[in-house]
Amino acid sequence: MTAVAPIVQLAGLRLDRGGRTVLEGIDLVVPRGSITAVLGPSGSGKSTLLAALTGELAPAAGTVEVLGAPLPRSQRALLERRKGIGVLLQGNGLLTDLTAAENIALPLRAHTRLPPPVIRRLVGMKLHAVGLRTAADLYPRELSGGMARRVALARALALDPPLMLYDEPLTGLDPIAAGVIMSLIARLNASLGLTSLIVSHHVRETLPVADRALVIANGRIVFSGTPDALQASPDPLLRQFLRGEPDGPIAFDAAARTEAA
Ligand SMILES: Nc1ncnc2c1ncn2[C@@H]1O[C@H](COP(=O)(O)OP(=O)(O)OP(=O)(O)O)[C@@H](O)[C@H]1O
Ligand SMILES: [Mg+2]
């Protein structure tokens, strides 16, 4: 048996944006097969952290290892590594003049040389995986918000990436659609043997499917552990965050944070 490298490993990571340090001292190991909830107030740096994992944002200091090796520097090698990372962004990003099936086929057309009948089959399987087999020929405008999110999820899965990054996957969905998406994310993680990071401010919907939780605030990781340990924590900062209270140890605007630092 050989030791399997963690799918994500961050050490001493510092991330700057617009000349300002957003996150620093970030150490994180994400085990394969896990679902990690990444929580924290707006502007705390959750999306910035995901940008570092895809290599979209280069670290100001420290190291980023994804899928068992440091992110490559060359653009070409980075694009190759990114095929192993499925990303679902808040806006869905579906092309409006393509059908659901055509949207899902895009990454397969761009990154493989598979013949059209094989691509059609794979697209059918992805649609099936998200429970939308009958929606193949619908255009994005004909889909409900929840269906469109599922098509975007199928497209993120098109190349069978072992690592999935979700940025606010529940935004704009009603509670029922949100529940469907969250359980789909959990089901796919288990059935396809994926590893998932879910950035979300929907604490109540996200924690139940997560094995681990991270809370980011004030420029660092302020909690890393199980959802149960998070819920039970007496830390005033975590209590403030979990209860959604505006006043407390979390400085809610960046200016206040800079002054306090
Ligand atoms: N492209 C950018 N240029 C400069 N500053 C940026 C850029 N993107 C983000 N920031 C700043 O970095 C900080 C963290 O932003 P980020 O988008 O990572 O927060 P977040 O936790 O994802 O917030 P939200 O929950 O609102 O999505 C914020 O202060 C933001 O203004
Ligand atoms: Mg964000």
TrEMBL record:
Residues 8-243 form the ABC transporter domain. It comes from the Bacteria. One of its GO terms (molecular function) is ATP binding. InterPro entries: AAA+_ATPase, ABC_transporter-like_ATP-bd, ABC_transporter-like_CS, P-loop_NTPase. Keywords: ATP-binding, Nucleotide-binding, Transport. Coiled coil: none annotated. This is ATP-binding cassette domain-containing protein. It comes from Cognatiluteimonas weifangensis.
